[in-house]
User: Which sequence fits this backbone?
C-alpha cells in the first residue's frame, strides 16, 4: 500500500519484478514465459521471489517455462528441468524434479537436493 501510487522508477528491482509477473498473471495466460526473471536481484530478494512465485503458481496453476542459468533456481521452481547444450542449443537431458510443492529455501540443504544439484551440475559441465 505504501507504493500504490509510486512510479516504476521508484520501485526496487524485486517490486518491479513482482508487479510485472502479477500484471501478466492478471490476464490468466495459459502459458507463462520467464527468461532470467531474477538475474538482477540480490540473493535475499531472489529467495523471497522464488517463494512468492511458487505461492502464486500454487494458487493459480499455470504452465510456466523458466529460463535460468541458476541450478538452485531451476530445482526450487521447476517440476521438470530441461538441460540445453551450448550453441546451437539442443535439449540434452530432461529430468523430473522430485521435491513437491512445499520446497523452499530450506530445501537447499536437503541431502537429496544437494545430490541432485551435483548431478545436474556435472551434466551442465559436460554439455557446455
Assistant:
Amino acid at each position: 500500500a505504501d507504493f500504490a501510487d509510486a512510479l516504476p522508477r521508484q520501485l526496487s528491482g524485486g517490486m518491479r519484478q513482482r508487479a510485472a509477473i502479477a500484471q501478466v498473471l492478471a490476464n490468466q495466460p495459459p502459458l507463462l514465459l520467464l527468461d532470467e526473471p531474477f538475474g538482477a536481484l540480490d540473493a535475499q530478494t531472489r529467495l523471497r521471489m522464488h517463494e512468492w512465485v511458487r505461492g502464486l503458481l500454487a494458487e493459480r496453476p499455470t504452465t510456466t517455462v523458466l529460463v535460468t542459468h541458476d541450478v538452485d533456481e531451476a530445482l526450487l521452481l521447476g517440476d521438470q528441468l530441461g538441460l540445453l547444450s551450448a550453441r546451437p542449443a539442443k535439449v540434452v537431458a530432461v529430468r523430473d524434479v522430485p521435491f513437491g510443492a512445499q520446497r523452499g529455501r530450506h530445501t537447499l540443504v536437503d541431502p537429496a537436493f544437494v545430490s541432485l544439484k551435483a548431478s545436474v551440475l556435472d551434466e551442465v559441465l559436460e554439455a557446455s
Q: What stands out?
A: The chain has four helices and four strands. The chain has a mean pLDDT of 89. Residues 113 and 119 are 10 Å apart (CA to CA).
